[in-house]
């Protein structure tokens, strides 16, 4: 039985490459634009596309693959894919939800703790010999207690909120509507500005895409109390980055913990001059265990489509 022709777009870990090469007749390219450089014979034969990374996959790329049936995204956020263009062409789109919720929530809390308890600075205090030479380490801030605001109480936002309850925090949240399954003592805010004004921690857990572009706007950031901290584990596009930088530089807010940026990996150099931030290289779901599950789910969606079976996690 011949293998199906599949294209892998982006840089995959070795275990993913091995699994796809074993299961498919695999074509591998680094970026969506590289699809356009393939021969017509190769492009015509491709039935499925496995995508990793955040470079845009547009209708023009899809048109270069006339027999494409499915775009399987590696990750829960699929804003790099023009899903409207895919739907218009009868191409299915899938993602990998739920399997990364714990890792992303854990990363959010790790950043929050690292920032407020000055974990990197404490490590450097020992590593540089400052502690051994008698220099006193400055006092940091308490983490437990206070009020946490979740901007987007979806699957990941809920995991973060549940963890923060264990740290004795009151939970406030904003979403399109109140969540019927949220505990009765969690406070719903109808607007993002109202949430921002009421909390010590503003945790952004929104989906990416045009609908949430700059959702955490300048007005939202200006509504935050002076001692509050912004945490973003969603997409860099969800936050007005210039407004955030201005707030951090002027002390309008206490700090920020960020795993995502607007033009990543080209982080705005203004962030690098700040001492009130924790910066991470978009590694929220970056554990070996979770990434292996994500890739298995990506392939399961491809296999289901090729076999004419229902998709595991469709998004269109």
The CATH H-level superfamily of the largest domain is: NAD(P)-binding Rossmann-like Domain
Intertermini distance? 30 Å
Residues in β-strands, percent: 15-25%
Q: What fraction, in percent, of the residue positions are helical?
A: 25-40%
CATH top-level class of the largest domain = Alpha Beta
Which fold does the CATH topology of the largest domain refer to? Rossmann fold
Total of domains:
2
CATH architecture of the largest domain: 3-Layer(aba) Sandwich
- Structural class call reads alpha/beta
The secondary-structure element order is EHEHEHEHEHHEHEEHEHEHEHEH
Spatial order of the strands in the main sheet?
Answer: 8-7-6-9-10-11-12
Principal-axes shape call: globular
Extract low-pLDDT stretches: none
The number of helical runs is 12
User: What is the residue-mean pLDDT, rounded to a whole number?
Assistant: 97
Sheet with most strands: 7 strands, parallel
Structure keywords:
single chain; Rossmann fold; 2 domains; 316 residues; 12 strands; alpha/beta; seven-stranded parallel beta sheet; globular
Short description:
With 316 residues, the chain is of the alpha/beta class. It has helices spanning 14-23, 40-45, 59-63, 83-88, 101-116, 119-127, 155-166, 192-198, 218-223, 241-250, 269-272, 288-306, and strands at residues 5-9, 25-29, 48-51, 70-73, 92-94, 147-151, 170-174, 187-188, 201-204, 229-232, 255-258, 277-279. It has two domains: 5-97 and 288-306, NAD(P)-binding Rossmann-like Domain (Rossmann fold), CATH 3.40.50.720; 101-279, NAD(P)-binding Rossmann-like Domain (Rossmann fold), CATH 3.40.50.
